[in-house]
Amino acid sequence: MRRQTLVGSVFSSILSASILIPSLHAAVQPRINTAVNDQARVSLADTVAPRAKAATDLGAAPANQVLSSVTLRFSMTAAQSAALDQLLADQQNPSSPRYRQWLTPEQFAAQFGLAASDLAQVKTWLASKGLTITSTARSGTFVTVSGSVAQINAAFGTQLHSLSLKGETHFGNLSEPTLPAAIAGVVGGITGLNDFKLKSRARIQHPAADPAKPLFTSSISGSHFIAPGDFYTIYDVNPLLNSSINGKGITIAVMGQTDISLTDAAAFRSASGLTANAPTVKLYGTDPGTSSDDIDEAMLDVEWSGAVAPAASILFVNSTDVIGISMTQAIDNALAPIITVSYGDCEANWGSSYLNIYNQLFKQANVQGQTIVGPAGDSGATDCDYDATTAVNGLAVDFPASSPYVTGLGGTMFNEGSATGATSYWSGTNGTTGGSATGYIPEAVWNETAADTVLLGYTSTFAAGGGGASAFFTKPAYQVGTGVPSDSSRDVPDVSLNAAASHDGYLFCSQGLCTNGFRNAAGNLDVVGGTSVATPSFAALLALVEQKTATKIANANPYIYALANSTYYGNVFHDVTVGNNSNPCTAGTVNCPGGGSIGYNATAGYDLATGWGSVDATNLVNYWSQIVPIGTSTTGANLSTVTLTESAFNVVAGVAISLNATVAAASSGTTPTGTVQFLVDNVATGSAVTLASGIATYTLATASLTTGLHNVTAAYSGDTNYTGSKATTQIDITSATAADFTLSPTAATITVKSGATATPLAITVAPLHGFTGSVAFTASSTSSTLYATYAFSTTPVVISSTANGTTNFTLYAYASSSTTGQAKFGPVQSASNAPAMPAWYAAGSGISVAGLLLLTLPRRRKWSALLLAVLSVGVLGASGCSSGTILSSGGSTGGTTTSTVNTTPGTYNVTVTAYCTPTGGTPIAHDINITFVVQ
């Protein structure tokens, strides 16, 4: 195997000049073949930031305000996309003459960028609008401009507004930008039209010194803290370092958006017993200064990537936007073979436009030989519910980690077992690099929400390793092996490392704390945890791989999964089989019909809590070149769409329903072929169905489905012309035999004038099979731009006999300004009983524990009234429900509401949920979907 790889590499090198490069430098065909007509415009879909939609509108932004980094991101033709995917596969295939033939940005431009003539027309048009060209991509994939708000508004046919979100002032576009049709045809999206950025969610702990204990063991909590020496011992890095495999000659680029302190970085290395090796900084655009939201994240990324690979060159790439500028420039300028980024957000909060834009950017990185490592998130399996104490948005994963072209890092925590056994893993003294661990320590899934609550003394938000199935990306060819779900989805994480913040957090130096080793004058330590520590640490392990193999890796995942499917599996990976990344959830919300918690358990082999588990670094490095990367097959690159319909939404268990999936070209083209796999709650049901004229039909048996809401997905496999794609719908199951109830609205559509009150909709609750109990109601909407309120005439509806109960559901096509500043859609509230409604937030992927809670990243959340406090109405009989009552109709929003925002005309989706919890029984929840038409 080793000889085959070497021969393939040499053969590729010989052929590169005569075969590869000429083919890549074939002229890109122009796509702007008509005159640019400024009057014939086309809007760009999904380019309004979710947080802009969630914010309070403060009016037009100042006309003279300057935007310095507005970037037009160019799309590829279907032929270019297909060629790129084929090249990515060939570069990982030892039998291909293009194996490991990485491109320069200019070579990428020659085949996959925008034609020079098209670029010239775009730049001419931009200049004609008074905008200044500040950057043109070496890869031919974007152009960046600066201009005033007035100029940007005029050029892109939108209106930039000043916005307020969670006490912060921002700006952003509230309508989709437009471009001349000729230019819109080559633009995939525009970034930089708002100043919302990802933020670290660092929380720092400062444990006090105790001379009677080993230096990094707390006498208060008994916790140990991880120094570089501990990492070397636990993950078996020492044999590599002893043989000079230390990252020398390899550059790791750390993505950031704040100035860093070289003094702190030097103090960390000194305290760790490491030789001096200062990071370098590359700034793009405006200097962000030192950001209190980001400085701790930046320092831990720089310090720990440099600790795990102590001789590597650490390049900190700085700007005002960690993804939109820093990551973009690191890839477009091919700054380093390994890129680590510790920021992210759940997929739903990006929007499809940004997911596509950045996924294309990550493909470019891979084809240039660059490896990207990102965090799977710190909110467990419910990534859209960061900063929550109960999940309402269902199962979700974090992007960029969910990209098939990024290696996603999950989190573990050490699991020493009994007190006696625990002491055997730690020494009473510290080594030269600060470590006291004696060897590998067993691991469980990182899940410390309860521990954080005790440690910090406040109601903790989620603190657990992210993982689950992507709702956007289909399963890549490499993702196979024992335990990998048959869910037709890109699953994360790929691997994990310790991410605990309380047990046991990592030591680092930030904001001048390390004046006495790792401690300050008061004897305190800086301790940090989260998948954003696991991420730079694993990126550094890959630097050791690159040094040992003397070649770039590009996408690491085909190698990781090849190792996991090889005879080396038990040597390379520590299989984590204990724990889960589950979080509490609110009954009646997505994926949580009956309350409790949702998430994934660790199991043998791959799982959605830790991926393949953690790694033995020495074996990872030594066995890397012994395997051939897997999953080199590709599908076509034309975008496809899936439309999924069900024959019934409310279904009695046991009654089969028909599912119909129609697959089509996203724009125009031939009819897709291939197969569609149907899934229920992300579990495949039956065999894949072959498309017939683009349609797949499946009969779904429902007898085994539990009562309540279920997600039904159709996942298209893709073919030689089209990429895979997904669509999801829902069905609501009613029991055929157990006590239950049904919901029946008098209509499925509510129509009202903007600013008016709709005619109440009667909803009947009909008991089944002896059901009695108290059924509470709430409503929610997936329409993120819906400004409206609602009320129920009665909630809960008490069912004490066989008679039906009724509530009237009223929608108001307006909302008070105080409400819209916090939530788009919620109940009418009264001053006496209305709890504060939560804001929507958006977040990055680092988390650290602190004695002080620092600023955390706002993370967008779809509003659900189930977040409201539940008031007990007493316990009913054993067959009934001890349900609560949420806020029903009240007066106007209390306080000093001064204005009202009318609902924008349009069609919105509203879901009404009825739920109860039987005493000693399984919670019951049912939904009905309402179409809300505002004229």
Automatic annotation (TrEMBL):
<dbReference type="InterPro" id="IPR050819">
    <property type="entry name" value="Tripeptidyl-peptidase_I"/>
</dbReference>
<protein>
    <submittedName>
        <fullName>Ig-like domain (Group 3)</fullName>
    </submittedName>
</protein>
<dbReference type="InterPro" id="IPR032109">
    <property type="entry name" value="Big_3_5"/>
</dbReference>
<dbReference type="InterPro" id="IPR023828">
    <property type="entry name" value="Peptidase_S8_Ser-AS"/>
</dbReference>
<keyword id="KW-0479">Metal-binding</keyword>
<dbReference type="GO" id="GO:0004252">
    <property type="term" value="F:serine-type endopeptidase activity"/>
</dbReference>
<keyword id="KW-0378">Hydrolase</keyword>
<feature type="transmembrane region" description="Helical">
    <location>
        <begin position="865"/>
        <end position="887"/>
    </location>
</feature>
<keyword id="KW-0645">Protease</keyword>
<dbReference type="InterPro" id="IPR015366">
    <property type="entry name" value="S53_propep"/>
</dbReference>
<keyword id="KW-1133">Transmembrane helix</keyword>
<dbReference type="InterPro" id="IPR030400">
    <property type="entry name" value="Sedolisin_dom"/>
</dbReference>
<feature type="transmembrane region" description="Helical">
    <location>
        <begin position="839"/>
        <end position="858"/>
    </location>
</feature>
<feature type="signal peptide">
    <location>
        <begin position="1"/>
        <end position="26"/>
    </location>
</feature>
<keyword id="KW-0732">Signal</keyword>
<keyword id="KW-0812">Transmembrane</keyword>
<keyword id="KW-0472">Membrane</keyword>
<keyword id="KW-0720">Serine protease</keyword>
<dbReference type="InterPro" id="IPR036852">
    <property type="entry name" value="Peptidase_S8/S53_dom_sf"/>
</dbReference>
<dbReference type="GO" id="GO:0006508">
    <property type="term" value="P:proteolysis"/>
</dbReference>
<keyword id="KW-0865">Zymogen</keyword>
<dbReference type="Pfam" id="PF09286">
    <property type="entry name" value="Pro-kuma_activ"/>
</dbReference>
<dbReference type="GO" id="GO:0046872">
    <property type="term" value="F:metal ion binding"/>
</dbReference>
<feature type="domain" description="Peptidase S53">
    <location>
        <begin position="225"/>
        <end position="627"/>
    </location>
</feature>
<keyword id="KW-0106">Calcium</keyword>
<dbReference type="Pfam" id="PF16640">
    <property type="entry name" value="Big_3_5"/>
</dbReference>
<dbReference type="InterPro" id="IPR013783">
    <property type="entry name" value="Ig-like_fold"/>
</dbReference>
<dbReference type="GO" id="GO:0008240">
    <property type="term" value="F:tripeptidyl-peptidase activity"/>
</dbReference>
